[in-house]
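Build the 3D complex.
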Amino acid sequence: MRILHHHPLYGASRTARLLLAERGLVFLPKMEMPWERNEDFLTLNPSGEVPVLVTEDGTVLAGTTVIAEYFEETEPEDSRLIWGGAGERAEIRRLTNWFETKFVREVGAPLLNERYIKRVAAAGNPSSEVMRAAMTNLHIHLDYIDWLAEQGNWLAGKAMSLADLSAAAHLSVTDYFGDVDWSRHPEAKEWYAKIKSRPSFRDLLADVVAGLAPAAQYGDLDF
Amino acid sequence: MRILHHHPLYGASRTARLLLAERGLVFLPKMEMPWERNEDFLTLNPSGEVPVLVTEDGTVLAGTTVIAEYFEETEPEDSRLIWGGAGERAEIRRLTNWFETKFVREVGAPLLNERYIKRVAAAGNPSSEVMRAAMTNLHIHLDYIDWLAEQGNWLAGKAMSLADLSAAAHLSVTDYFGDVDWSRHPEAKEWYAKIKSRPSFRDLLADVVAGLAPAAQYGDLDF
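Done.
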């Protein structure tokens, strides 16, 4: 059985869970606490980051895009999440990197650290300055999603792609915290409602992290 | 003619220059100052980051891995920089992401900001605390390269790959600043000497940035 090392509040882990679910690939989830820098996990992935997928033949796939590209290459052609010609594929990868790197740096990582890790690791009080900056950045990213969602049905164009899964995965963590003001971003909200109602999303909406209950609208499909 | 929007001291730009040179793909370089957030450049790439390659048919490729994957798909099979079976390709991508993301976050971006951007943007004095932390991280990354280089001829195994180009590109910026103590990292030094002497590297070694001359050993193949 495939094993996915993950943490429910790390957006990149959620991207991996979504792409596996969209592909109908079952896995055994194993929860990691990346901030603890556990030796066994560092042996598996020296960067100490989640997600890591260990395939049935023992191949170690570290990182969301590594996992995604692996299944693009080994699963049937008709299940592509990075679809189209070389130019369309470049756009899907650009947007995926946007959420996996830029969104994480500007929004995801600071909010996760202030709202959750500082508490569980007993690492001091949240910084309101850091949170304010992250919330400002969140609106800029949501403006961009508004704009992208207006151009086509999905973020990278006519069909759902890895870019949608990545954006929704990372946003869903901020939504768990209750940090998204959807009323200010109608196009992003419509797009998120569509992806939130997919069967692949159900598992994420059932997440409850010990000591930090999700915000009221988190699991609600009619938010 | 292809146009590469780049900056000589941004490691990711250097990865793109190396991979284009290794593939024998000519391009017209156009220098950008990403910290200036120039409107025209933001229209091309809303993230404001270099590199961006505009192909001869006008396709916009934003980001090193996007550029790399595009040419893996459109250039002949025998020129692969992401080679091998699905597992080997996953390892090349993992290491490439390591340098493009983790190294940049922990070493490249803070050193670039303190040593160069703060000066040209007149944004205050360098922080010795930030630089010290980045230098400590640099040694940890070089230890990892020592270890990888000991395992095989190249970082991801038996042949040169995108991972080597990425690692060397980012390290070459810190070497431009004179920040690498090669004597403490003999295996990394041997690997870097090998890649530094490749024809694809010549263009990088000729870089001179206005107002900041390279360190003495920067262009020396026998450093």
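The first helix of chain B runs from residue 11 to 22.
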